[in-house]
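Summary for the steering committee. The consortium agreed at its last meeting that each partner would contribute one worked example illustrating the joint modelling workflow. Our contribution is presented below. We chose a case with several input lines so that the handling of multiple components could be demonstrated. No manual editing was applied between input and output; the record is shown as generated.
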Amino acid sequence: MSNDTGINGAESLVRTLVKGGADVCFSNPGTSEMHFVAALDRVEGMSCVLCLFEGVATGAADGWARMTGRPGLTLLHLGPGLGNGLANLHNAKKAGTPIVNIVGEHTTQHLSYDAPLTSDTEGVARPMSHWVRTGRDSLGIAQDGADAITAASTASPAGPGQIATLILPADTAWGPGAAPATPAAPPVRGKVSDTAIATAAQALKLGADTLLFLGADAVLAAPLMLAGAIAKKTGARIMGRTSLSRVERGAGRVALPRLPYPIDISLETLKPFKRIVLLGAPDPVAFFGYPGKPSRLAAEGTEIIPVADGTHDLMDALERLAEATGARAAKPILAPLARPALPKGALTAETAMASIAALMPEGTIICDESVTSGRFTGPITENAAPHDWLQITGGSIGIGPPLALGAAIAAPDRQVINLEADGSAMYTLQALWSQARTHAKVVTVIWSNRSYAILTGELAAVGAKNPGRKALDMLSLENPALDWVALAHGMGVPGVVAESAESFTEALRAGLAENGPFLIEARI
Amino acid sequence: MSNDTGINGAESLVRTLVKGGADVCFSNPGTSEMHFVAALDRVEGMSCVLCLFEGVATGAADGWARMTGRPGLTLLHLGPGLGNGLANLHNAKKAGTPIVNIVGEHTTQHLSYDAPLTSDTEGVARPMSHWVRTGRDSLGIAQDGADAITAASTASPAGPGQIATLILPADTAWGPGAAPATPAAPPVRGKVSDTAIATAAQALKLGADTLLFLGADAVLAAPLMLAGAIAKKTGARIMGRTSLSRVERGAGRVALPRLPYPIDISLETLKPFKRIVLLGAPDPVAFFGYPGKPSRLAAEGTEIIPVADGTHDLMDALERLAEATGARAAKPILAPLARPALPKGALTAETAMASIAALMPEGTIICDESVTSGRFTGPITENAAPHDWLQITGGSIGIGPPLALGAAIAAPDRQVINLEADGSAMYTLQALWSQARTHAKVVTVIWSNRSYAILTGELAAVGAKNPGRKALDMLSLENPALDWVALAHGMGVPGVVAESAESFTEALRAGLAENGPFLIEARI
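What follows is the complete predicted structure of the assembly.
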């Protein structure tokens, strides 16, 4: 084979990924990725962030992509390394985030020998990927990379992107490379039919017992303005899915209540609605199935009116709905700026959130993995300075610290605040080290309740009665208590404990003043 | 359906697992496993160890099973939770360890609604499992559990067990259960043919240029005595695979050199042999493929004589080989007890290992994930008190701290020493918390070289020349340095830094005196 380009497959791939906008690589490389790593130095446009665990890399790529709208990029080591990244790929898949995973693999010839690290890498990739391909030769790997970018940039029902996993046998990296390839544009997101718009508009015009249920990227500021106008004009209500990838909210934006998580409260919340119009969100379902309780959350007899999912052009659909409901000229209700007073006294999730709402600067990015502690604290920040709110989307805990890392690298001029349950933080605490290395402006707030608090409720909800010591031991993070300040310090992140509202405020001020990461263990 | 037993599916399953000898459950439960958790309190024979990350649970189950010979048991939460456990299941699979994973799942009816945590759980399980089943109803789940025990206890080519994954929809746990089931005995391990024995015996009798290459459970003390007798009688050499699940070694045992890891040294090591007899080990292959280097490590023209793999009765094969080579009465060379003098001066992996060899008590279990630092330190302990040596078997890093946890719980009267690379330890550092909670007698020695040192060599080995700053950043754990004593302290484990041979010895004495875990950050 001729090699007129003078570059190897790895370099042709790195250059292709940069062309495709995937220019920050969250990496946990091993031997099989060494040529890719070596190529990084020869390509100016690519930055690399070392992650000390693969779940950090995949969660960070998700956070980066949610903030940039471009494909998040990971570099992982063989099947087991990809395995370690699956949980956060699951979350990214449920968020509809565009992600490209480059997974190193044994050389094509070496694979047949069942070496210790050999596994079914495609098999590992498939459950959490929309698109999987194994590179066949070094001259084709640039085009494979371009195809991965296109696949990642293709909208899915959940949102604007997909998970694309490209497996890179080492010889396709070290062999001669072709010229970098240019990714094809992804398919244009489809327009909703006129009939669907007319049906939905008719339902919305019936007013307060119709719900416009939103998800995917219909909860950014611009589409929410249209949804708010429709609500203002028709009296219909708007609400977001329980878990949303990225909401633009705060002062000057349309406030969006979210469907609560607990099964009984969510059933109660949807009970008043006779019609639910779906726009970027599916027919609402419970997080888990419970004995004697329904999986679908809408009341019996509620009419479900599906308009669009993430594969559709949601802005276009909202514009046409606004037109059809006569809401074009309506002025949506916008949240006024109203910073709460700094709280005093006991530290609770509520008082801590009041401090955050009072002090957080405009443009803050909240990465919310509060699980129990933060569940009812969203309204406190509704009138804070305008900000972004990123959530755990697939229910697989351990997303917060990596998501915050990725968001901070995507938006280095903005403050990131990671609201984090202690149990969840333990899954991917290694992200703190990468935050320290990159001077990521992340304040991590650990809700230190020393338990998997959510499970105490769940144990009751599934009808498991009178738990004994062994069961309760499985829900407790005591004995020993985790010392989060020590853990942060061990990874180069300064931190303090807060035990009162006042000390939390002081800690938060210190954290916001840092030119890098900071951690507050909030003893609530 | 009748429910004469008065127990639910979860309890019928827990009782079945206890009958099958799987009576310690390394758990990271979520909502869908709450009935299983509740059942723990009603079944006396089952102990539970909470792990704060699934990779800890699977690695600990591996360590427990390697030491007890019974199926290691995990409790995991849905597809993403299983995903987090895959890397150490990969290691266990390559070790041939018997493992039963119980993976909670949505109720059968809820699965159709694509709730946030829904994923293809069987798809996640398959690449790292020999046996996968999803429970269909609560009355059948006891038999499913019994079948999982039988599958896990069935020998595989790698060793005495297999990975069995039983997926447990929540309704199969909370519905009425049948009586606990009794697992069927696994298939008896096959006998090697007389022809194979005769061929191998003939080769061994040719003496020093024949290698008896050992793996699986042929490297425990009893089979090694036979292998040592054959070597003594015939002059043939014995050697173990590069990575072994569990070797019984030290004073009074037959010393077993292992095939080194680095490609050039391993090729050199095998060069002298004209014949390689395989007993519980495959035809030796390189860990990775490298440009211009072979995948198979035996020299061109070396005769490969396969006798048995892990599915065979290896003791029987060795007894018949001893008979056929006239080695029945031969006395193998046994390692004499010779504790080294306590070292002075600079702290290196070698001097630290001398301290360990001098001080470790009889019956110590070494869990070795040293990667670069420990590679040549095995011989130093050859004449130490008799001990077990457990290794990373599938090359997927992050096994050491969990393996040590599981081994300590399996053998509470024995000391465990975890030799651990800093980069690897970061993958599953959460294991320290479970060590603290269970007062596991584990001394963790962190080889703190502040880099993925192995990759520096690998970068050169694959021919990636002149790495620049970006590439080198991907191999360095500096900036910031990890403070292992702080990390351990954060999880309730006392620890110290050692910077000289003398301070290492002092730290080791302190660690061995602890009635629980201890960590030494060895700055080498």
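Chain A touches chain B through 107 residues (CB under 8 Å). The longest helix of chain A spans residues 78-95.
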